[in-house]
Design brief:
Largest sheet: 8 strands, parallel
Strand order of the largest sheet: 1-2-3-6-7-8-9-10
Structural class: alpha/beta
Number of helices: 10
Oligomer: single chain
Order of helices and strands: EHEHEEEHEHEHEHEHHEHH
CATH topology: TIM Barrel
Radius of gyration: 17 Å
Number of strands: 10
Shape: globular
Distance between the termini: 13 Å
CATH class: Alpha Beta
Length: 281
């Protein structure tokens, strides 16, 4: 059994075959958490989770890139898309959580300094992201759900990760969080582990040639790792270039086992236990 702790079958990329994709994963012994990125996709994640008896769960939140309207270039799978500006409505998101027991986390939310609109005041945008991140933490506390944190720093820096740590230290004295799609360095990963958090690895580890993923994997204990796909993005080898899906999390598990020099069954058992403990599933 494996758990894809972060996927987006609730996105339009799966509008034609979502049920087929979900069934393919469930038949392979793979559970999933669909993450919302704004109210519309958060609601879709909850509705999808409710339509399956087991194995499909939801997380709800407002992604930092949806705090303002702008064009975002995406190198993974798509040439780009236009984001809608949305104000975070605490009560609306709380209502989504309270209406379903299948909502297991608050996410994905956090800080994204990599895709800030160049025509707007950068410091002002960062401050807004931080303020909304704190609101999400307040929401998580009020409904007793763990955090699914998105963090993408300015290229060549760890700035957003450093700011996330400061916010966690001041506003969230709990180990119940994960760093989704971690792309930082090993020392940064260990700082989050020191705070009790989990580090989520995905298809990037199957094609990263920089050596950073290997360094992170070598330094992190398996007990601090969970797996994800971030589908439809970041498709692992051998399907790089095609649409990603939850069933492909198996390739992430196999690569992690290879990198650590252990049997894939150990990766499956430990990462699944880690995810089940964090998300109480």
């Amino acid at each position: 059994m494996l758990i894809d702790t972060h996927t987006h079958v609730n996105f339009r990329a799966f509008r034609e075959d979502a049920d087929e994709v979900v069934r393919r994963a469930l038949d392979a012994g793979i559970w999933m958490i669909n993450a919302g990125t704004k109210f519309e996709t958060s609601r879709a994640a909850v509705e999808m989770a409710e339509s399956y008896s087991d194995g499909v769960y939801a997380a709800v939140a407002l992604h930092p890139i949806h705090l303002y309207e702008h064009h975002v270039d995406i190198s993974e799978e798509e040439p780009g898309f236009h984001t809608d500006g949305e104000e975070f409505d605490f009560d609306s998101y709380k209502d989504l959580v309270m209406r379903s027991t299948k909502v297991v986390g608050i996410g994905e939310f956090g800080l994204d300094y990599y895709r800030l609109p160049k025509d707007k005041d950068q410091d002002e945008l960062k401050q807004k992201q931080k303020a909304v991140m704190i609101q999400h933490i307040d929401l998580a506390k009020s409904v007793a759900k763990p955090l699914m944190i998105h963090c993408r720093p300015t290229e060549g820096t760890m700035d957003a990760y450093e700011d996330v740590m400061k916010i966690l230290d001041e506003y969230y004295n709990s180990p119940e969080f994960e760093m989704h799609c971690f792309t930082g360095d090993a020392p940064t990963a260990l700082e989050f582990v020191k705070r009790g958090g989990l580090v989520a690895l995905n298809g990037i580890i199957t094609f990263d040639k920089s050596g950073r993923s290997m360094d992170v994997v070598k330094n992190l204990p398996l007990e601090s790792i969970i797996l994800e796909t971030d589908a439809p993005y970041l498709t692992p080898l051998p399907y790089r270039g095609k649409r990603n899906e939850p069933s492909y999390v198996r390739f992430v598990a196999e690569k992690l086992a290879e990198m650590k020099g252990i049997d894939v069954s150990e990766v499956e058992e430990t990462t699944t236990a880690n995810a089940r403990k964090l998300y109480k599933i």
